[in-house]
UniProtKB/TrEMBL annotation, chains A, B:
The keyword RNA-binding does not apply. GO terms for molecular function: FMN binding; oxidoreductase activity, acting on the CH-NH group of donors, NAD or NADP as acceptor. Keywords: Flavoprotein. SUPFAM superfamilies: FMN-binding split barrel (SSF50475). Its cofactor is FMN. InterPro entries: Flavin_Rdtase-like_dom, Flavoredoxin, Split_barrel_FMN-bd. Belongs to the flavoredoxin family. It comes from Neorhizobium alkalisoli. Residues 15-162 form the Flavin reductase like domain. This is Flavin reductase (DIM6/NTAB) family NADH-FMN oxidoreductase RutF. It comes from the Bacteria.
Length: 194, 194
């Protein structure tokens, strides 16, 4: 766990995904770790922070989430473009060596029996909020964020710093096929009184 | 309805929100139209396309969605930064003249009894998929996209063209307060065979 990985206050954790990045979802069960890319991840509540992820039933990682009741949401960055693509298009069911083939390196965070992917911009440890009907009907999973961390080279003091971090730190926003956009220019609106 | 607004094939409609933009949600009931900004909107399925939106119970627009069972998801752009901020921070409950104050102009699309906001990049007409438990417990609403349109100056042939459209067409990605990022640079990963 490198020295740039710093805790994020839970009241600010929703900001890690508020801008709609494509994420990685990892889980562990029965001695097996896996990671998949997920374009459909979304904030659900601020405090305590909750989020939603859509996990297709053909995804092996989904089976680990269902079995263990927990998962990690990661915010990958431009330096991980090909890693993200590979983790989203290859299945453990076809290739149990998928993580190594994609170049994913895992690390542990003490107190969490979960696999974390090195090199991301942020990590959100989540407990599955069980809602069997919507899991079955829509592949939609709800999670409560129990602890969050970010790399302080791109997120610190509760704010993203894409403007000043290098371009390799920008979040990825998947469109279709192998096509993505990086997050772009910062802009501020005037917040007017009610 | 200006001549640049073109239908989007439903099989491609999920691409309109796949990259995680902040959206506008509008609805109509009993002769009242309203629009709110929503950062938490997410794809849910491809074909037929479905999506999720989180609508806080303090939002007047939510009451119109609940009463009418339908809504429009809009993808606003940089030219609409202040409009988006104003629609997200002011409530019809406090100011029934909110739309005019924000400078929102509505238009109709034949066959849809719904209010559409001029100047956006894309519009998705949705029917509410009733799931009362998750609406009540999480403020989470599911919609099936019944028809979609985009402005062909920024989305055409099933693809976003942020790279070649002017910077005013970039989508908005809200972080917190009045702070947003525009979508940025396009990038392609190599899609490797299984």
């Amino acid at each position: 766990m490198n020295g740039h990985i710093k805790p994020v206050d839970l009241s600010r954790a929703s900001r890690l995904v508020n801008h709609g990045p494509t994420v990685l979802v990892s889980a562990r069960h029965g001695g097996v770790d896996n990671v998949m890319a997920v374009a459909w991840c979304c904030g659900l509540d601020f405090d305590p922070p909750k989020l939603t992820v859509v996990l297709d039933r053909i995804a092996h990682t989904r089976s680990l989430v269902e079995a263990s009741g927990k998962f990690v949401v990661h915010v990958p960055n431009v330096a991980q473009l090909q890693l993200t693509e590979d983790l989203g298009t290859h299945s453990f069911y076809d290739d149990p060596g998928k993580l190594a083939a994609a170049g994913a390196t895992l690390f542990d965070i003490p107190g969490h029996d979960l696999p974390f992917v090195e090199g991301c911009s942020a990590w959100l440890a989540c407990e599955l909020i069980r809602e069997p009907h919507i899991e079955d009907a829509y592949d939609l999973f709800l999670g409560q964020v129990t602890e969050a961390w970010a790399d302080d080279r791109v997120f610190r003091n509760g704010h993203w710093h894409f403007e000043t971090a290098g371009p390799e730190w920008r979040s990825l926003h998947h469109v279709a096929g192998g096509h993505y956009y990086a997050i772009g220019e910062a802009m501020d609106a005037v917040r007017k009184p009610d």
